[in-house]
Amino acid sequence: MKSISFKNFRRFADFPEFKFGDITILVGGNNAGKSTLQKALLLVFDNIRSLRKKVSAFNIFDNGFETPQFRFDANEFHDLNLGTFERALFTGSKVKQMEFTLQIDNFPIHVVVEPDANGEDLPVAKVALIEVKDAKRHILYTFNFNTRRMRVDFEQINGNGSPEFDKIQSRIEELRRKLAQEDDAFEAAMANQELEKLLKVRNALAHDTHEVDESTSAETDINNYLGVKGERRITSGALPGYIENIEAYTSTIGARAVSVTGLTDDEVENETDSSEEVWNGSEDDRANEQVLADKRSLILESASALESELRRPHVYYIQAHGVSQKMLYTIDDKNDFMAQAIHEYARRGVVRGSFTDIFIRKWMNEFGIGSDYEIESIGGEGYTFKVITQNGTMNLADMGMGTNQLMVLLLSLATIMFEEGHHGKDGGKSFIPKFIIIEEPEQNLHPRLQSKLADLISEVAMDDSYKFLIETHSEYFIRRTQVLVAEMNIESEEELAKQNPFKVYYFPAEGMPYDMKYLPSGRFENKFGEGFFDEASSAALTISKLERRKING
After folding, report:
1. What is the reported pTM?
2. What are the backbone angles phi and psi of residue 423, rounded to the nearest 5°?
3. Three-class secondary structure of residue 205 per DSSP
4. Residues 356, 347: contact at Cβ < 8 Å?
5. CA 253, CA 258: separation in Å to the nearest integer?
6. Residue 177's pLDDT is what?
7. How many helices (H) and strands (E) does the chain have?
8. 364 within a domain of the structure (yes/no)
């Protein structure tokens, strides 16, 4: 996840592009929009990954290419329950339309959402338009479901006489031809690896020398490419399938030129024949054929890359919650966050001495919880959780609320690590991007432990495949990140911007959030709004004034 922007969603009429860092921290007052950002991110990501269609049970082509649905209720990945289009729409919006743009790796994806034909007060709406830009391959795909038109634009990249550029471009085309025909999986993987490297070099050269010229485009009715080749893809609801269907459409254009054979009397007598090719398509088809003639392998390559990027990011949501203090944590209580965290961790069968097991015990000790833990399954229906301390073994239920909150967080993080390949003693390595959203991790924690949360998150984020989005009201957590930045001993602001994993955004009561911007000293360039860092000092100042007033009588 690189960035998000949106319009007419919940609190914001126009939320500008918001760029994520390795550890992005959201601070600000209540109802300032922090949760709106999180919900927008999860909502659009979940819907993009799982587009749904209204397909007739009798004939999937009853209404041509059906408009995808956009759901606001619970979905497959995260239980958001935002209600309806009407409830999610920005109050005071003059248009019944929402827009979201989410950039995943090199693919900015723009989605326009409008009310369902049956009304605004429904948990589903319709996707009016989807635009997908493949920044690496310089392609823009547009699917307009209102006009039922699809369009693809190719930016032309031409050399300016540079031998290096022409050589790279030639090799790229050679690799694309190879990938289009290669059946061996290993050879295809090696060719694709080389292709990815060359595309980065080529695009950098194109950017530096301004070699991107005006684009060429192809456009047609969406219904026109509902061919047999695209039938499986079109009913699956997967966004990459739309792009694959452009390739399917290109394969049908040539079929519009039909061969007609006729024999004249003279030809019959002389046993000769003549053949004539007759064009049976539209002028648009002919124009599209010229544009798409050598683009089929590039389109499939682009669709494959998009599918990979949509499948690769694993997004986790650890929401703000209360905890129960029970002797027995039952599996079937879905509203008991502690029970679910213990169950998800225990069912992985984590081995003692493995990376994830060591991780939990280390941070239990760091937070002063205990040195070890014991999880016992009770007939497969629930668990008991005991903590081993210097004073003996205690039930987790008999410990404080802060300890219980921390154990939910530690168990959740450890479960994520296990899922991503950290099974053995060395921890292994996962190259799958993980995006973890955590709401108010400081709940019920002593100030010293709130500070230590920053150490926990920064350690996990040292594995560069982990990214965090954290909503917090904790001054102590923020202060500790400042200390960690200062301890980096980086003098250059430019170098700090490259190495500092933290990015803090402040959400004011009015207006747009802004980047606080760390300085090499650990201080912030910008100021927080009233009621955050200044609250404690303001209270201390008031006490001092009152004391002086009493003394002076």
Report:
1. 0.78
2. -105, -40
3. helix
4. no
5. 11
6. 66
7. 16, 22
8. yes
What is the distance between the alpha carbons of residues 73 and 350, in angstroms, rounded to a whole number? 34
Cα 190 to Cα 99, 310, 376, distances in angstroms: 39, 22, 47
pLDDT for the residue 426: 52
| Under 8 Å between Cβ of 490 and 496 | yes
The whole-number pLDDT of residue 220 equals 74
pLDDT of residue 49: 84
Angle at 330 between CA 326 and CA 332, to 5 degrees: 140
Number of Cβ within 10 Å of residue 186's Cβ equals 8
Count of domains for the chain:
1
State the Cα–Cα distance between residues 431 and 191, nearest whole angstrom.
20
Q: Burial of 46 by CB count in 10 Å (0-12 exposed, 13-18 middle, 19+ buried)? A: middle
The range of the structural domain enclosing residue 371 comes to 323-428
| Distance between CA atoms of residues 456 and 458, nearest Å | 6
Three-state secondary structure readout of 474-509 = CHHHHHHHHHHHHCCCCCCHHHHHHHCCEEEEEECC
**Are the beta carbons of 475 and 538 closer than 8 angstroms?**
no
d(CA 139, CA 133): 6
Q: Three-state SS for 5?
A: strand
What secondary structure letter does DSSP report for 263? -
Please tell me the number of Cα atoms within 13 Å of 27 on its side-chain side: 24
Contact 508/531 with Cβ under 8 angstroms?
A: no
In the DSSP assignment, the letter for residue 161 is S
90 lies in some domain: no
Tell me the average confidence (pLDDT) per consecutive run of 10 residues in the chain, 553 residues long: 93 93 93 91 88 49 60 69 89 92 93 90 90 89 84 71 72 72 73 78 61 63 50 54 77 55 47 49 72 80 86 83 81 86 91 90 95 92 92 91 93 87 54 86 92 95 90 94 93 90 93 93 90 63 68 70
What is 46-93 written as a DSSP string?
Answer: HHHHT-EE---SS-TTTTSSPPEEEE-S--SS-------HHHHBPTT-
Q: Is residue 388 part of a domain?
A: yes
**Residue 35 domain-assigned?**
no
What is the rounded distance in angstroms from the CA atom of residue 217 to the CA atom of residue 154?
6
**317: helix, strand or coil:** strand
Q: What is the residue type of 413?
A: L
Q: Are 124 and 67 in contact (CB under 8 A)?
A: no
Integer-rounded Cα Rg, in Å, for the chain is: 29
